[in-house]
Amino acid sequence: ADTKIYQASTTAPVNIAVVKYWGKRDPKLNLPTNSSISVTLSQDDLRTHTTASCSSTFASDTLLLNSQSQDTSGARTQACFRELRALRAALEASNSSLPKLSSLPLRIVSENNFPTAAGLASSAAGFAALVRAIANLYELPATPTALSRIARQGSGSACRSLFGGYVAWEMGSKDDGSDSLAVEVAPASHWPTMRALILVVSAEKKGVSSTSGMQITVATSQLFQRRAEIVVPAAMVAMKKAIKEKDFESFGKVTMMESNSFHATCLDTFPPIFYLNDVSKAAIRLVEDINNAAGKIIAAYTFDAGPNAVIYYEEENTAAVAGVIKGALGGLEGWASREIEPKESTSLDA
Ligand code: PMV
User: Fold this and answer.
1) Is residue 165 part of a domain?
2) Is the confidence at residue 336, as pLDDT, over 70?
3) What is the spatial distance between Cα 248 and Cα 155, in angstroms, rounded to a whole number?
4) Most buried among 30, 32, 124, 320, using CB within 10 Å?
5) For a pocket test of ligand 1, which of 26, 210, 258, 269 has the largest count of ligand atoms closer than 8 A to its C-beta?
């Protein structure tokens, strides 16, 4: 019998949304109530590295994250395994010389080079890396968009981490999710001066999980429907235009208004969800001060399901934005900052 260990590795980067995903129309398939857009950040700074292996000598499917054993029986991980195994089984059926990897237990080993569950989209990089590592192991001829359909079932935002640069997740309209996919808006090289500053509240733990937060928002918020039907579709059009034209003022305005709209629906959820804390609000005021001093928008904040800020700006304004923010917040306890660039390459690394 074949006792060989087959193995492949990959990395996937973190992405931070500038048009936010918040709300599921199908919680099982992670089908969203609105489309979204993100910027993929550099792998050197924030990424998950994952090795996938399979062998008849393994007893069962296992998953290790930062050396800690994780449950693989969850519906989301199972959905990814099932979809990838089905694609491999189809390859094996059409070519009998291929080893029968689809029936072997999987061993997944992942490492994040950033704090897990600190509201830094760790699940996005995590599921994107898991899906791509197994796709590489199975030698699947799948495009990033095809893999995005699978990664989406692990964590919605993960579908956007299959690409570098500026990425749209088009919500789609089909019930089976076959058209709810990530597509490239522009590669990172299109806007080489874009920068992001991450401000981490190191002590803070994630409060309400995105999955349960979304469910209560969809069920109780009165603002939510207007956001999904009117606010976000307009933001999608404006954001794609801003990215294509490298128009930072428009990019920044939509980014900040989108973050505010998402957190407004959280406050409008009953009982309300608070992701921003007083330090987050201080960061918002600081960005406003910076933009007022410049006489135009040169910095844009955004917050996901936690108090940590990501500030976008252009390289020429590094001193006026990153310098000022680090100077002002440096004295505050609990803040750490990192300056990073969007991810350059969009290639599938083996
Ligand atoms: O992919 P999830 O289920 O972790 O949800 C992510 C939700 C936000 O980060 C708040 C917004 C987004 O589009 O990434």
Assistant:
1) yes
2) no
3) 29
4) 124
5) 210
Q: What is the tens place of the pLDDT at every residue in 247-304?
A: 999 999 999 999 999 999 999 999 999 999 888 998 999 999 999 999 999 999 999 9
State how many domains the chain has: 2
With a 6 A CB cut-off, is 275 part of the ligand 1 pocket? no
DSSP assignment of 91-133: HHHH-TTS--GGGSPEEEEEEESS-TTSSS-HHHHHHHHHHHH
| DSSP per position, 292-304 | HHHTS--EEEEE-
Q: How many CB atoms lie within 10 A of CB 114?
A: 18
Tell me the C-alpha distance between 314 and 292, whole Å: 16
The CA distance from 120 to 1, in Å, is 44
CATH label of the domain that carries residue 75: 3.30.230.10
150: helix, coil or strand? helix
Residue 245's Cβ-count burial label (10 Å; 0-12, 13-18, 19+) is exposed
Token pair 């629906």 is found at: 265
Domain final position from 127, 153, 187: 187
Which SS3 state, helix, strand or coil, does residue 152 take? helix
Any domain includes 315: yes
User: Running DSSP on this structure, what letter comes out for residue 342?
Assistant: B
Distance of CA 152 to the CA centre of its chain: 10
Q: Is the CB of 21 under 6 A from ligand 1?
A: yes
